[in-house]
Predict the structure of 6-phosphofructokinase.
Amino acid sequence: MALDHHATDRSGHGAPLRIGILTSGGDAQGMNAAVRAVVRTAISRGAEVYAIYEGYQGMIDGGDRIRRFGWEDVGSILNKGGTTIGTFRSKEFRERSGRLRAARNLLLLGIDRIVVIGGDGSLSGLDLFRAEWPGLLAELVENGEIAPQIAEAHPTLMIAGLVGSIDNDLVGTDMTIGADSALHRIVDAIDALASTAASHQRSFVVEVMGRHCGYLALMSAIAGGCDYVLIPEHPPADGWEDRMCAELRRGRAAGRRDSIVIVAEGARDRAGNPITSEYVRQVIERELDEDTRVTILGHVQRGGVPSAFDRWASTWLGYTAAEELLAATPDSEANVIGIRGNRMSAIPLVEAVRQTREVAACIERADYEEAMALRGSSFTEMTKIFRELAEPSRVDASDCAKRIAIVHAGGLAPGMNTAARAAVRLGISRGHTMLGVRNGFHGLRDGEIEEMDWGTVEGWTADGGAELGVRRSVPKLDWLYSISRSLEEHRVDALLVIGGWNAYESAHLLYSERERYPSFTIPTVCVPASIDNNLPGSELSIGCDTALNVLVEAIDRLKLSGSATKRAFVVETMGRYCGYLALMSGLAGGAERVYLHEDGVQITDLVRDIAWLRESFAAGRRLFLAVRNENASENYTTDFMARLLREEGGDLFDVRQAVIGHIQQGGSPTPFDRLFATRLTSHAINLLGDELAAGTSKGYYVGLMGSKVGASPIAHMMEHMDKEFRRPLDQWWLALRDVSKAVAGEAH
Ligand code: ADP
């Protein structure tokens, strides 16, 4: 193991630093990934790690509930739901006497740094424990339970908190560990219910978790294409029952075959009375006079395999928590490590817990405006978007409505349909007439354009593929005249281009030919949709989360297929020259090596890797996984690498290669891709609306930068791109290479 430094105790004895880790409160998918990352990062840095079983109770009980962990103790847990080191709701830890025993047990092992993964309860308990630590030590010395030198060597408890909670209810992080996987479970259930509900023209009421937080309810309602949602932060005003039923009726009249209402378990009315799913069912059955069923999803939401996001983000969080704790001094601030805008962020633990509790307090005292404000602007924005998507308050365009055409181009990306649906419904709701162009720029050239109404896009949310059709071709110069004629004939006032690199190139071409073809001088906005995640102006593109989940599922299966033998896998991902899918699926799938075009592949690395691999299989390793981007190296192909391993592996292990291929483009879009498509499209329609209202015709490409959805001018599109390899010059996720190395294996 090549280590640049060994983390040692600052007491001057040269003893390694000791970190404790525990999971507490409600379990959440992704906790295991975080534990694995803390353990491996700490070991990579030369520290010792102790797993504390069964949460705070294990710390109080001591003995074999606190176990030194080695590298292999966290092998094969990345893909498991729940928490393998156990969790517990410990009453004893709420008492000072319990915390005294906990402090004693930690000190006996020389542990004065702990990572806790839990909800706001667990984190406030942690804060209290830290504040009391000096007093607990003094008492232990006084009672003669520990020696004064031990107390002197560990004067403070250094802590880092990670938020594990499926509710996504903690202020200070965009996503809590487990929330994305819970959304996967809920949206899968809604998709399944929608197909049976539509067959019988039935209504369903679905109850989801969330006592004080409507995140899961609201986001699953948007991602599931549902009709109505009830959340604690935004209770409906009196008379909501009639309004809800009127909305459901309008939805049916406009083309829906089913109605699905999502109720958060903590939903309430303005007077603070709970709204139960059974009550909602009765209202619908009575008013709509139709068969209505309730499905309470319950603990299924906590279970199952963690999503790709819950694996890579939790790995990154665990890595960061370990790094922060190893660098901590007694004066360091106690932080919660969260993820904000695709970056790690640390905020004071006390502040995070205080603000989180404030939301619940606001709901209790019926200050709903403040509760929504504390949830943040994108939560409020999504509430508004949901209403527009769900309710066909406006289905006929006025005579003076402007005409916006939607066109897809580039490779297929899951979520294109979701984006087109959002564009049609939001466009209509905002007063425009929406047109669909069939078959990309080919279709635009040939005039394959038709008007789309509210009902046309019913059911598109969950469908992978692209109903409008998509072509890779970029317009040739001799197409431009026909395209311009077609835009004129169909009186297209604005263009919404949803797609990948070729879509962007096409939009750029039309933009630069505006002088020659006046009909190109119309507001134009590009929305990034590509599994490759290689587009300018957006840190993520629609479809890449789905592709990543497909890859991770495939990797899980491959690993299982090889578990009975000694086997090395070389897995090839798509991505063109962008290594996003390879690196992130490597991180989320637990790969030992990742090969990217951004880094290139050197023969010296391969030779070193093989030497390590032979040693490691000889010492008992059973599985090795390398993930390789399809263009990582022109000559060291996937086939070459597999053959090289086979030749060099001899009898030690066998080798399989797996090119995952087009299934990466084919999945039903994940909740994240559906929500992201909806949010970006809403922004794009707003931009087009503003341009049309102002009588101007700027061109933009939209995207997510950090936490913000924004837009950049088309004219400057190519300035931020590596044109030879068709990827952005600046790629944020490359920072995760260090994380991958720390948790992956010992040859780095
Ligand atoms: P969550 O962490 O998921 O919010 P809980 O609120 O049940 O779950 O907290 C988990 C555990 O954290 C509790 O069982 C208890 O051991 C500890 N804990 C919570 N709040 C406190 C507190 N105020 N003081 C001490 N320990 C606490």
